[in-house]
Design a protein that fits this description.
This protein is an alpha+beta fold and about 230 residues long. The protein has 7 helices and 7 strands, in the order βαααββαβαβαβαβ.
Length: about 230
């Protein structure tokens, strides 16, 4: 069953990718997923609405970022079914010359959920604040039934080849599942990004404590690959 790597060109391709994204990270019980795509309420469409909101938000962020590339790997023998995807940013210059604006988690209603998510997103942004040219793998994921077929390596090769052609170092925000794949592509662990929101104990509402208990810890392994010499 031949696999093909393709760059995502249009919003019409995105719902299938985000459906896979949601299913993968839901299965992994990722604490980051409710930050980006909370299920609000208990109605029959609550989960579907969360995926649709995620799809719209992720496409918007991609469309306004000229450094962003979404990739997908499809199985051509399965009608071009998407089995894996990734988002790379290739920064040929310092990407943070302009002041960063505070995050707005517009997909959350007003309240502690939104405040918690916005603080987490601000912490993620701060962890990415590298004032130099570099490549960054934002996210990579594959369908559980199609792992170990080479799709992850295809997504990695695209980014590392781009980084090497531009003489860039590269960074990854790695989950435990992906660390071996990334190490096989020349990445090494250099630290941990901890983005769990912090407030004084006296300022925590019951809702804040519930979110903290449900979503903590919010952290990831920082991996780095040196530029090609």
């Amino acid at each position: 069953m031949p696999l093909e790597l393709r760059e995502v060109q249009s919003a019409a391709e995105f719902p299938e990718i985000m459906d896979l994204y949601y299913n993968v990270f839901e299965e992994e019980q990722s604490n980051f997923l409710p930050i980006y795509a909370p299920i609000l309420g208990n109605g029959p469409r609550a989960r579907e609405d969360a995926i649709q909101t995620l799809t719209a938000g992720m496409w918007f962020w991609h469309a306004v970022d000229l450094n962003s590339t979404w990739l997908k790997v499809v199985d051509t023998d399965m009608g071009d079914k998407v089995i894996a995807a990734a988002k790379w940013n290739i920064y040929k210059t310092d990407p943070f010359t302009e002041p960063q604006t505070p995050s707005v988690a517009f997909w959350w209603p007003q309240g502690e959920g939104r405040r918690y998510s916005e603080m987490a997103l601000d912490n993620i942004a701060a962890a990415r604040l590298r004032r130099k040219p570099h490549a960054l793998l934002h996210v990579s994921f594959a369908h559980p039934q199609h792992r170990r077929r080479g799709a992850g390596a295809m997504l990695m090769d695209w980014g590392t080849n781009k980084a090497d052609s531009e003489g860039l170092e590269a960074f990854i925000e790695a989950s435990p599942m992906g660390k071996l794949l990334y190490a096989n592509h020349g990445f090494q662990v250099v630290g941990t990004g901890v983005v769990t929101p912090k407030v004084d104990e006296k300022d925590k509402s019951e809702e804040w404590k519930r979110l903290e208990n449900q979503l903590s810890p919010l952290d990831f392994t920082v991996m780095w690959r040196p530029p090609l010499q």
